[in-house]
Structures are given as structure tokens and as C-alpha cells.
């Protein structure tokens, strides 16, 4: 990991009618880190990530990618940028009528003009990277367990060789063993591919296992960004409740 920023959020304001979700929110993600985002339910984690992804326009403030203001990018530059991102949405969001292989091929079909046989080869390679065997390629999403669906979601997110991977609660719904295996896979991918990973999570074990730094959203802002060892000492009621609760204590002593 380097200290060099890859994504910077500056002075972000997000608002729905009179409901202000973010006010003057700043956050910096460093190249090559696994950056966790935590916060209470409704604190604005998903809205923040959707804004970085360009699915929502900031009501004020700016998002910078590699130092370039996203609001000033041309549509073409944005399209190029989006190819550098892989996203695993909550629930994996696979196309139910497409096989696993076709799901992973979908971003290739959308963005790259190449023979179908080559797309299929790339899809199978990504499937292997996500820890699934070739026999999974012809299965339909309905035939997969929750953990397998998430792995296919990761394979699809990796289809275009992204620099940055966005994960929305990747271990939600997995049993503890499945969740820790998933964490291991993310760690391996980060190391072998040099990815930057931005991950919304409620999973305290994941924070300990793979996050280099964690941003906490409370009171409409990022109130702190720190490695877990520093974060647990941070003097704020939400942070203290979170890490002093039963799940936080168990993870700390684990
Ligand atoms: N499209 C929308 N229209 C109106 N309000 C919205 C919309 N999207 C989000 N919000 C509101 O913004 C706030 C933040 O939502 P967000 O989904 O980002 O929270 P979160 O921190 O991701 O929560 P959770 O942990 O429960 O997933 C919530 O109060 C939500 O109701």
C-alpha cells in the first residue's frame, strides 16, 4: 500500500428533500489499501459509495479519482474510468436467466469487442480466481449457495481487470467459516492483483482480518479514518459502543 490517494471525497453534501445525509464529508482512499466503511444503519454508507461510483450526483463537494475531479470529466473519460472499477453489490445482483459464465462475460460484452470464445476463456479464468471450479461455469444462479453467488459476483467484478473493487457488505449472510474464507480470498486478490478495495461492512471480523484502514460515518461525516488498533481507542460514543459490544469484544479477543 502507498500513501498516495486514489480516491478523494471532499466537502460532500448528500441530501434527499430536506433530509441531509452527508454534510461536508471528507474521505481519502489510498492506492492498494483495503478501506472499510462502517457506520450505523442509515448513516449513509451506500449513498457515499453510490456517489463515488457516479450513480448519484453530489449536492455539493467533489470526488477526485487519481487527482482528477469527476464532475469535470467528459462522458468518454468517465466511461474509461468506470472500466477501472469492479463492483459487488449487496445480494450479488446476478442475472438470473444467465449462466455463471455468461454473468461473468456480461461486462466484457458491454465494453469490449472480442470473440465470444475468448470472453468465455477470460470468464473461466476469473471464476478460478474467485475460488470456484470450472464445473460452476454452466450452472444457473438459482443452483448456487449464497457464498458461491458472492464469488461469482467477485469474478464478474474482476472481468475487466479493475484497479478498484467496491464491495457492499460482502460477508453478510455467510456463516463465520464462509465469511473468513471470503476475507482470505479478498486479501489474496488484493495482493496478487494490486487492487484497491473499498468495502462497506458490518462484520467486525472482516475489519480485523483485512482492512488496512477504516472510515467511520457518524453525524453526517467521516469522523475518523484509522487502522483498527487505533480505531478501537477512538473516543466517540458510536465507535465505543460498536467495539465494546459483544461482537466487537469477540473479534478483539479472537
Ligand atoms: N433514493 C433515496 N431517496 C430518499 N432517501 C434515501 C434514498 N437513498 C437513501 N436515502 C436515505 O439516505 C440515508 C442513508 O442511506 P444509506 O442506504 O446510504 O444508509 P446505510 O448507511 O448504507 O444503511 P444500512 O447500513 O442500513 O445499509 C437513509 O436515511 C436513507 O433513507
UniProtKB/TrEMBL annotation:
GO molecular function: ATP binding; ATP hydrolysis activity
Keywords recorded for this protein, A-Z: ATP-binding, Nucleotide-binding, Transport
InterPro entries: AAA+_ATPase (IPR003593), ABC_transporter-like_ATP-bd (IPR003439), ABC_transporter-like_CS (IPR017871), P-loop_NTPase (IPR027417)
Organism of origin: Marinicauda pacifica
Official protein name in the record: ABC transporter ATP-binding protein
UniProt superkingdom: Bacteria
Domain ABC transporter: 7-244
Cross-referenced PROSITE patterns: ABC_TRANSPORTER_1, ABC_TRANSPORTER_2
Pfam families per UniProt: ABC_tran
